[in-house]
């Protein structure tokens, strides 16, 4: 899904987005200056946490037309993870030590993370699919039925057998049109779309991974 902080609503495409500081109130109903936070530093003398020392301030962005909103934590990497701050870390599939250098790619309605170890796809409904380059996988490619201009959309589907499951990662690359692209079978589909340098990066890593497993790339 599109990041609302880009100035476009992911739901209605309206281009008026408001940034706000959610209010939080302390003793005597006094408004805390920094607003809502993920956690707070523990008190030195009394028990509990100190509202004057927030960690991970939260900001709200909402669409001025439909009201859709997203919240984001400022400086998320600085939020302490321990029982004292009442925070805990949960790692999803594909977010482990095997892919520490993964890069988040800008896509619509699904998030792609790309790295030297593999590719992860996180969907808004919570589904996570991961393909690892070091294990055999298959590549299927189709193009959009109609091609206009010097570039074309190529739909990519990666499949990889895993323990009691089949991982499928699918996305669209906007690549330079060519006879090889035109020879791909046409297919109408709606997938997360990558273009520019990000599309070239994905295509380059796909070629490298395909050579590792002697897979013939259609383009």
Describe what this molecule looks like in 3D.
The protein is mainly beta and 219 residues long. The chain folds into two domains: 4-85, no CATH class; 103-212, no CATH class. The protein is built from two helices and twelve strands; from the N terminus they run E-E-E-E-E-E-E-E-E-E-E-H-E-H. Strands 1, 2, 3 and 4 form a four-stranded antiparallel β-sheet that branches. Strands 5-6-7-8 form a four-stranded antiparallel β-sheet, with no helix packed on it. Strand 6 and strand 7 (118-122) form a beta hairpin. The chain starts with 16 loop residues before the first strand and ends in a 7-residue tail after the last helix. Mean pLDDT is 83; it is low at 94-99.
How would you summarize this macromolecular structure in one to three sentences?
The chain is mainly beta and 219 residues long.
Record the SSE blueprint.
Elements: E1 17-20, E2 37-42, E3 49-63, E4 69-73, E5 103-105, E6 111-114, E7 118-122, E8 128-132, E9 138-143, E10 151-162, E11 165-176, H1 179-182, E12 193-194, H2 196-212
Parallel strand pairs: 11-12
Antiparallel strand pairs: 1-3, 2-3, 3-4, 5-6, 6-7, 7-8, 9-10, 10-11
Structural class, from secondary structure content?
mainly beta
Helices, by number, come to 2
Please tell me what the overall shape is: elongated
The share of residues in helices is under 10%
Key features?
219 residues, elongated, 2 helices, mainly beta, four-stranded antiparallel β-sheet
């Amino acid at each position: 899904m599109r990041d609302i902080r880009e100035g476009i609503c992911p739901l209605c495409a309206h281009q008026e987005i408001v940034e706000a500081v959610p209010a939080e109130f302390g003793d005597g109903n006094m408004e805390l200056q920094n607003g809502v936070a993920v956690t707070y530093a523990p008190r030195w003398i009394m028990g509990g946490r100190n509202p004057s020392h927030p960690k991970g301030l939260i900001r709200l962005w909402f669409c001025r037309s439909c009201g859709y909103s997203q919240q984001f934590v400022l400086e998320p990497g600085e939020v302490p993870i321990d029982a004292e701050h009442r925070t805990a870390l949960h790692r999803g599939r594909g977010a482990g030590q095997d892919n520490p250098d993964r890069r988040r790619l800008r896509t619509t309605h699904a998030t792609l993370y790309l790295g030297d170890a593999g590719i992860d796809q996180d969907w808004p409904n919570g589904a996570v699919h991961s393909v690892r380059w070091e294990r055999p996988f298959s590549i299927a490619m189709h193009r959009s039925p109609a091609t206009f201009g010097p570039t074309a959309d190529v739909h990519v589907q990666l499949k990889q057998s895993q323990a009691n499951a089949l991982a499928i990662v699918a996305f669209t690359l906007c690549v330079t049109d060519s006879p090889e692209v035109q020879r791909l079978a046409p297919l109408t589909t709606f997938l997360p779309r990558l273009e520019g340098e990000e599309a070239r990066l994905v295509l380059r890593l796909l070629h490298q991974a395909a050579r590792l497993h002697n897979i013939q790339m259609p383009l």
